[in-house]
Design brief:
- The complex is a heterodimer of chains A (150) and B (154).
- By secondary structure, chain A is an all-alpha fold.
- Chain A has one domain (3-140): Four Helix Bundle (Hemerythrin (Met), subunit A).
- Chain A contains six helices and no strands.
- Chain A has helices at residues 3-20, 26-33, 42-66, 72-89, 92-107, 110-143.
- In chain A, helix 3 (42-66) packs antiparallel against helix 6 (110-143), helix 4 packs antiparallel against helix 5 and helix 5 (92-107) runs antiparallel to helix 6.
- Chain B has 154 residues and is α/β, with parallel strands linked by helices.
- In chain B, 36% of the residues lie in helices and 16% in strands.
- A five-stranded parallel beta sheet of chain B has the order 2-1-3-4-5, with helices on both faces.
- Chain B is globular and about 35 Å long.
- Classes of the chains: A mainly alpha (150), B alpha/beta (154).
- At the A-B interface, helix 2, helix 3 and helix 4 of A face helix 1 of B.
- Chain B: The modification 4-aspartylphosphate is found at residue 86.
- Chain B: Keywords: Phosphoprotein.
- Chain B: Residues 36-151 form the Response regulatory domain.
Chain lengths: 150, 154
């Protein structure tokens, strides 16, 4: 198998695994479909926005949950936003934790919230890693003269 | 009155605004009418995706970050067939913006958006005057039929 074909296979296999392992869902496909010649870097740009937003939200959440008196409405607002952005790009596992997180907020359950914060941090770093790897393989493929299979 | 969309400067940074519509060869649907939409969402990521999804389906779309900007745009005479508006906006809330827009006599189809649907939010938003309420993100499965309905009613 030549270099380009090998990279293409690697890309397809890796992408498939992300869906199978639940890191990404259908929304990510929708996102990819918005990319075309008029918007060639759309996916990378949107995912970069997601990384920026997420890091900010995780900081805010950590701060809010460190307070002596926790303002659960504030925590809830951040989690709500995180759920919105993660579901928008198809980051399924992150989104799922956000739903559980929100329930704990409603119950004003500090233990539950702290647990969810740890979980969402972990899921976020996992999906970030996966997406960065995905983009790296795409870059290699393009550099080798190939094109991304649609 | 013709929409003044092209003449409105939005300056919401982030991904390039470009034109408000995509050139025809990239569009996934065409409609009988020239359809226009307004997106109101404070979260850049969501706003960009909502805007691009609508443009991909042939709807000339403008996006703003706040309820105030939406109200101002409508008050200045811009008309839209569809308005997609998030419930949580920083200063003027989604419901308040919708109330003010409806008070101006606007009969556009207004779709309320939220990250997580709750009963209370649903009640508040419908009371303010939205026509439909959906969880984000925009999915062609539900928004394309809405566009079709609006297109057929013109």
């Amino acid at each position: 198998m030549d270099g380009v074909a090998q990279l293409q296979k690697q890309l397809v296999d890796f992408t498939d695994s992300l869906f199978q392992e639940g890191f990404l869902d259908e929304q990510f496909n929708q996102l990819q479909q918005l990319q075309d010649e008029s918007n060639p870097d759309f996916v990378v740009e949107v995912v970069s926005l997601f990384f920026e937003d997420s890091e900010r939200l995780l900081n805010e959440l950590a701060k809010a949950l460190e307070q002596k008196t926790i303002d659960f409405r504030k925590v809830d607002a951040h989690v709500h936003q995180f759920k919105g952005s993660s579901s928008s790009i198809g980051a399924q596992r992150v989104q799922k934790v956000c739903i559980a997180f929100r329930n704990y907020c409603e119950e004003q359950n500090i233990e539950g919230c702290l647990k969810c914060l740890q979980q969402v941090k972990l899921e976020y770093s996992l999906v970030k890693n996966k997406l960065e790897t995905l983009f790296k393989i795409e870059k290699q493929l393009i550099a080798a003269g190939g094109s991304i299979p649609t | 009155m013709a929409p003044t969309i092209e003449s409105v400067y939005l300056g919401n940074g982030g991904l390039s605004e470009g034109n408000n519509k995509r050139s025809n060869r990239f569009v996934k649907a065409t409609w009988k009418n020239n359809l226009t939409a307004l997106v109101v969402d404070n979260v850049e990521l969501c706003r960009v995706l909502e805007r691009e999804n609508l443009r991909a389906y042939g709807v000339e779309t403008v996006a703003v970050e706040t309820g105030e900007a939406a109200v101002e745009l409508v008050a200045s005479g811009s008309t839209f067939n569809l308005i997609f508006i998030d419930i949580y906006l920083p200063t003027m809330s989604g419901p308040e913006a919708v109330r003010q827009i409806r008070a101006m006599g606007v009969r556009s189809k207004i779709i309320g958006l939220t990250a997580i649907i709750t009963e209370k939010d649903e009640q508040d938003f419908f009371a303010a005057g939205i026509d439909e309420f959906y969880e984000k993100p925009l999915d062609p499965d539900w928004f394309v039929p809405i566009i079709r309905e609006v297109d057929n009613q013109i």
